[in-house]
Amino acid sequence: MDLYAVFGNPISQSKSPFIHTLFARQTQQELSYTAKEPADDGFVEALANFWQQGGKGCNVTAPFKEQAFKAAQQHTERALLAGAVNTLKLTDDGLILGDNTDGAGLVADLIANFGELKDLRVLLLGAGGAARGVIRPLLDEQVSELVIVNRTVAKAEALAERFSEFGKISSSSFEDLSGQFDIVINSTSAGLKGQLPPLKAELIQANTCCYDMTYSADVTAFNAWASEQGAAKVVDGLGMLVGQAAESFAVWRGIRPGSRQVLRELRRNLSR
Ligand code: NDP
Q1: How many domains does the chain have?
Q2: Close Cβ partners of 267 (under 8 Å, ≥ 6 residues apart)
Q3: How far apart are CA 78 and CA 107, in angstroms?
Q4: Residue 185 in contact with residue 213, Cβ under 8 Å?
Q5: Residue at a domain's end among 46, 71, 100
Q6: Cα 33 to ligand 1 centroid, rounded to whole Å
Q7: What is the pTM of this model?
Q8: Is the torsion defined by CA of 215, 217, 221, 226 positive or negative?
Q9: Is this complex scored with an ipTM above 0.90?
């Protein structure tokens, strides 16, 4: 039986074992996928043990994505650009390949919910690890402009500079932000602390679609706020979670599972 796992801390609430077990069933692959919770300073050792036990690949989530990047011996281009790894794979040559599938997961879910992104003006709230991983995939969809806004403005500026060769991208503070956006993506962790990013209400127009990378059984705080401002549609990040998992599964197994049915089951499971 091929061994896969997800590493994170905390990990008990992780949906990844549920998702990958459904993917394996759907694609008739025989594999085991478990959750592992190393201590904050125990990731490297836990990962080494995993490979020794015959592990074929793993997902990595907070707070270990940067350590996973360092642990990889080869990187995909999207992992190099993100500077973080959420997927590790043991290659046929016995090397550890680091990949980042978060952006592919987000883009697939945005398109599934809002349609093609080409020529749309997109606002990205936040400039942390999640934001970094999704910028290149968003620019690859030929959005007309991607604006990054962050509480610590210097971080948004650095990202806009770093990705400027891949498309039209700019940065702003929350105070200076203006204009209209087709899609607003919340990649801040404000919601995890029951807070909202300080976005001006007038930035949400009747045709604005909002996407919150955070997800919960109930409507997220950001999406509740966006709906109150009259947003056309609001979607949470559960589909991104399933999308990045599907992409990881394809990296490991060479077969792409379908997301829709798994997302439905996960949503049902979440609200129980
Ligand atoms: P980081 O800690 O790397 O970044 C956090 C970001 O949120 C920073 O830009 C920070 O701004 C901003 N922020 C935090 N609190 C506030 C606040 N009160 N007001 C405004 N901005 C705030 O986290 P990640 O980027 O790794 O994750 C961000 C979110 O995305 C999390 O909720 C995570 O669960 C979610 N996520 C979802 C995924 C999915 O599959 N659905 C995948 C990955 C992440 P500053 O720089 O000023 O501190």
Answers
A1: 2
A2: 238
A3: 14
A4: yes
A5: 100
A6: 27
A7: 0.96
A8: positive
A9: yes
